[in-house]
Every structure is written in structure tokens, then in C-alpha cells.
Amino acid sequence: MQIAPDSPKLAVVMVGLPARGKSYTARRVERYLSWLGYYTRVFNVGEYRRARFGARVPHSFFDPDNRPGEEARRLAAVAALEDMVTWLTDNGQVAIYDATNTTRARRAMVHERCERAGFQVLFIEIHCDDLDIIEANIRSTKLSSPDYADVDPDDAAADFRARIAHYQRAYQPLGEDEGASLRVAGTGHAVTVSNVDGYLGARLVFFLMNLHLTDRPIWLTRHGESTYNATGLLGGDPDLTPAGHRYARSLAEFLDRRVPDRDGVAIWTSSLRRAVDTATPFGRTPWAWRALDEINAGICDGMSYAQIQEQLPEEYDARKRDKFTYRYPRGESYQDIILRLDPVVIELERTRKPVLVIAHNAVLRALYAYFCGVPRERCPHLPIPLHTVIELTPHAYGCHETRTSLEPLLASGEAL
Ligand code: F6P
Q1: How far apart are CA 232 and CA 234, in angstroms?
Q2: Measured between alpha carbons, how far apart are the two ends of the chain, in Å?
Q3: Residue 372 annotated in active site
Q4: Residue 416: which pLDDT band, with cuts at 50, 70 and 90?
Q5: How far is the CA of 116 from the centre of ligand 1 (A)?
Q6: Looking at ligand 1, which residue's alpha carbon is closest to its atom 16?
Q7: Which of 63, 111, 114, 223 is catalytic?
Q8: What is the pLDDT of residues 272-324, one digit of tens each?
Q9: Region 152-175: what's the mean pLDDT?
Q10: Which of 207, 213, 284, 395 has the most crowded Cβ, counting Cβ within 10 A?
Q11: Which residue's C-alpha comes closest to atom 11 of ligand 1?
């Protein structure tokens, strides 16, 4: 995506003590902005430190009074910073500098270097005092890091707590005079904004306000088979076939088995008949989003792929060449779909209940790409078969996926 010509490239600089969720937040921001089309990359200073000085260093390496340790960490920070500046100067649009950056001096160095290169700087400080969350972060992420390969988990956790204590002694909370910042307390409940301007900064405020760490499933499914699926036609607003109605019933049974309390699940559909009708057996009105409607095939709506190839060969070939950016005349491209799905993604992030999304081939490919971190250009080729429920459970560093086919044999063939 183009950053407006008059707006500078953005360096997001993470701030906070270890095990507060900085890397988690950095990667989530990277995934979200990449999906929206910004060329985004995380620069993790810990990786530079490991590459230069080895993974297995004791906690005393991080003691602010340990001069050689301090110097080694500064060198790793500078190397990551210089790579980041080079990358942003070349083609990068948004870089995320993932380090503790706990002292004013370190932040001033990063800020000054980025400003000198012409980049806008946005600090994101993650603050968390909840000892249970910190301990859970240590256990779930730090112990599996290369820093503690083959170390007894309790010894590793004790060493990491000692490392945190070193940082705590040197920590200087971010001040308002240090520049634009977002301060996230807890797991995204409260975001304090200071001096932020520009479109991207505002989008990140909105995104981070809605992030949470509750593990809950999101089910993605296409509507039941439609009369257009059965005859190989694109788009339209057709009815379900008998097989499609059967799928709707199987889907309701599937969900009842997974979540016996039906009200515990949010049901979202597109505004198209085949999706809304697939939700009928749930016995309540779903939330019907226009944003979840299938890709608008414009002048090709209601045609089959074979008809397009025969009657509009140039369009057929152009789509084949670049299915991601191709826009149907008077219709949409996959790129367009991602933009209209942005509010759906934010709402999915915000919702803490399990959600069932009943939608369509192209829009589900785009949603799947977001949650599973698939490069957006690949989303037009992802398989999202009919009569299959894709269960995604987002967690700290990715997404767990299972697929359940509810009706292996369709009454008729379907166009893919
Ligand atoms: O064939 C079903 C369908 O949902 C069509 O309505 C839509 O045009 C198509 O899938 C999208 O898939 P593709 O981008 O692969 O053509």
C-alpha cells in the first residue's frame, strides 16, 4: 500500500520490561499492517545479541553495572538499528524496533537516528504489573527461547526473573517529552495516546485497543452449496440447494456439540441469501455484514469461468496473470476485499466470545490469510472448500487450525 507521499516512513519503537508482551505486540502489528499492504518488518535486538554474543549468557550479562555486558548489548542494539534504517531507506514502509529500550538514553539514540534518516517515530510502551501474567509469559515464551535451550525450566525461570530485576533497576518509564507514544497497560485494555498524529498512528491506536489474549475459537465456513455452486456460476444472490440446506443443519449440530450454550457464540454472516440461510437452523438472527459479501465479479457476475474465458478472454488472462491485484471491471479485486474486511478483523479481535463466520470463498481466504499470517498475495489461491468448517484459535504466536468436513460428498460438483 502507498504511504501518502507527504507522510514519512514509520519506525515503531517498542518499550518495556522483559516478558510484558512486547514481541507479541510487535508481531501482531507486523501481521496486521502487512495484511493491509504496508511493507512491514520487525527488527528484534535479542536476535542480534544472540547472533553476536551467543544465546547462553547468564543474567549478569544484563546487569546495568556490568560494563562489558552493557557495551555488548549496545552494539547489538546499534547493529539492529542500522539494519532497520537501511531497510526503511530502501523499500520498507513500517519498521518495528523490538527491544526493551528501557532507558531515556537508549530511546534518545534510536529517536535521533530515525529522525536524522527522515522517519517518523512512534513509541509503544507495554506496561504490566500483573505477576501472574508475567510468570505466564516467562513460562510460555521465554523458556522455549534459544537462551534457555536444554536448561531446567525452573532454573531458566529463576534466571529470567533475575534478568528482569536488572532491567527494573535501570528502567525509566517513557516521558511525554520523548515524542509520539502509545502506552498499553495490561493486555490492551487501556491505551494512552500522547502526541500521535497521522493515519497509521491512529490505526495502530485502534488496533491495539482491541487486542486481547483470550484464547477463543473462530470458525470460518462458506455458506452451504448454492444453486450457482451447483451450476458453476459466479457471484449473484442464489438460494441454497437441498445439499446446502443439509449442510446448514449439520453446521448447527456441529456447533451445538462444540459449544452447548448457543448464546455463547456470535454468529456473523454476509448480507447474501445463501449465507444468511445457512444460519437459519441456529434459530436466531445473525449479524449480517455487507463487508462479508463475496467478491464483486462486476461484469462477470452470473457467468461461469468457461464463459469468461470464451467471451472475455482478455479479462480471463489478466486475472490468471495476477489474481491478487486483478479487479473485475465494475467489480472488485482481492486487494479491495482486504480493505473492506479491515473493520471485520478489528471486530473479530475485539470480540472475546467464540465467533462463527458464515461467508464466501474469496472473503474467507482474505480473513484466513490475516489470522494465519499468510502473505496477502497468496490468499487468492488458498483452499476454502464448501461444507468444511475451519476452526482457528489465535494464540500468542500464531493460530491453531483444524478443519472438519461435514459432508464429504456433495450432491453436485462445485466451481472453484
Ligand atoms: O465459485 C464460488 C465463488 O464464491 C464465486 O462467487 C466467486 O467469484 C469465487 O468463488 C471466488 O473465487 P476465485 O477468486 O477463485 O474466482
Answers
A1: 7
A2: 28
A3: no
A4: very low
A5: 48
A6: 416
A7: 223
A8: 999 999 999 999 899 999 999 999 999 999 999 999 999 999 999 999 999 99
A9: 90
A10: 207
A11: 362
Three-class DSSP category at 3: coil
Question: Please, which residues have CB within 8 angstroms of residue 93's CB and are 6 or more apart in sequence?
Answer: 1, 3, 9, 10, 38, 39, 40
Strands 181-185, 120-127: pairing is parallel
For ligand 1, which residues put their CB under 6 angstroms from it?
Answer: 234-235, 294-295, 297, 360-362, 380, 415
Task: Give yes or no: 98 in active site.
Answer: yes
Query: Atom 12, ligand 1: which residue's CA is nearest?
Result: 362
Are residues 313 and 279 in contact, defined by beta-carbon separation less than 8 angstroms? no
- 127 has which bridge partners? 185
Express each pLDDT in 213-232 by its tens digit.
Answer: 778 999 999 999 999 999 99
Which residue of 226, 227, 233, 234 sits with most ligand 1 atoms within 8 Å of its CB, as the best mutation to test the pocket? 234
| pTM check: above 0.90 | yes
Instruction: Please say if 263 is a catalytic residue.
Output: no
* Beta carbons within 8 Å of 335's beta carbon, 6+ residues apart: 37, 324, 325, 327, 376
The grid coordinates listed for 242 are 437441498
Per annotation, catalytic residue among 30, 98, 277, 391: 98
How does pLDDT run across 68-116, given as a tens digit for each residue? 888 999 999 999 999 999 999 999 999 999 999 999 999 999 999 999 9
